[in-house]
Amino acid sequence: MVADAEKKKKGRLYMLAAALGWGLAGVCVKSITWGSLPIVAVRSFVSFFMFIIVRGSFKLNFSKVNILGAVTGAATGILYLQAIKLTTAGNAIVLQYIAPILVFLFAVIFQHRKPKVIETILTIAVFGGIVLSFSDSLDASHVLGNILGLASGFTFAAQIIILNDEKSDSEDSLIMSCLLSLIITLPFLLTDKTLEFTAKNIFWVMVLAVVQYGFSNIMFSRGIDLVDKVEGSLILTIEPIFNPIPVAIICGEMMGIRAILGSIIVIVCVTLYGLIPTIEERKRAKKENVN
After folding, report:
1. What is the 3-state secondary structure (H, E, C) of the chain?
2. Which of 221, 79, 88, 228 is nearest to 155 (CA)?
3. ∠5-238-172 over CA atoms, to 5°?
4. C-alpha–C-alpha distance, residues 241 and 236, integer Å
5. How many CB atoms lie within 10 A of CB 186?
6. What span, in angstroms and rounded, lies between the C-alpha atoms of 85 and 80?
7. How far apart are CA 191 and CA 106, in angstroms?
8. What's the predicted TM-score (pTM) here?
9. Which of 69, 148, 209, 243 could pair with 173 in a Cys bridge, judged by C-beta atoms 3.0 to 4.6 Å apart?
10. What is the pLDDT of residues 128-160, one digit of tens each?
11. 212 with 21: CB under 8 angstroms?
12. Tens of pLDDT along 53-84?
């Protein structure tokens, strides 16, 4: 029992570190003057070798499901970083955060799962929160950024569905995702002559590559197997809450009132959705004890 408690404690710390690290994406990207694609290239290059060093092997399983996971992972990273450049960091992460609801809708539509009333209500509320976030910034640049952020939510949901396949290897898929992202974006890094290699840019690029992506994904891969999946998903809700804070402090970027309200609705509803299995399990256990 003590050993299990220690494992869970370590798992929670790993997941907390992952959430806080991921939450640095906004301030890093906003602080770098480069375009998003060269940023992705450097982040992918550094992170790829971090994963390989930690793993201690270049051997990868290029199965169909792992490749699909890599494609959706690469798409998610590229779309998300572009979204941060074109809309507020808070909007970008909240729009991506609809992924769990999209996974639920996939199960209902394609796997014929019968939705519960509370799940339906929460899904409608999430889309209401998204509408509020969109309506806060109606100029062309922000609308495009919001659309890309929403698209990253769809690709992230696809990645979750693929990686839940018993034939998939999430670590292999993640490493291949870095490699694919690097292949796609490297030409933009090599041909863009406007890139400024200032101390500030180099500092934030390295923070993004080493801490925000490499370190955080390693922490996530270690923590996810040590904690309950529901508990793990709830710990990760720290990311969209934390993400806009360093952006506001360091970059002075503030979200509008409607965007903040929309973000709160999305975060609360996704959190409640994650709690549903735990609540139901406790109800069943209580009922069994009474009987």
Report:
1. CHHHHHHHHHHHHHHHHHHHHHCCHHHHHHHCCCCHHHHHHHHHHHHHHHHHHHHCCCCCCCCHHHHHHHHHHHHHHHHHHHHHHHCCHHHHHHHHCCHHHHHHHHHHHHCCCCCCHHHHHHHHHHHHHHHHHHHHCCCHHHHHHHHHHHHHHHHHHHHHHHHCCCCCCHHHHHHHHHHHHHHHHHHHHHHCCCCCCCHHHHHHHHHHHHHHHHHHHHHHHHHCCCCCHHHHHHHCCHHHHHCHHHHHHHHCCCCCHHHHHHHHHHHHHHHHHHHHHHHHHHHHHHHHHHC
2. 79
3. 75
4. 10
5. 17
6. 9
7. 40
8. 0.83
9. 69
10. 887 777 676 555 667 889 899 999 999 988 988
11. yes
12. 988 888 899 999 999 999 999 999 999 999 99
* 223 neighbors 104 (Cβ within 8 angstroms): no
Both tokens of 6, joined, read: 């220690």
Number of residues in the chain: 291
Tokens of 32: 């770098």
- Is 24:211 a contact under the CB 8 Å cutoff? yes
Give dist(CA 200, CA 196) in Å, integer. 10
Domain boundaries, the chain: 2-290
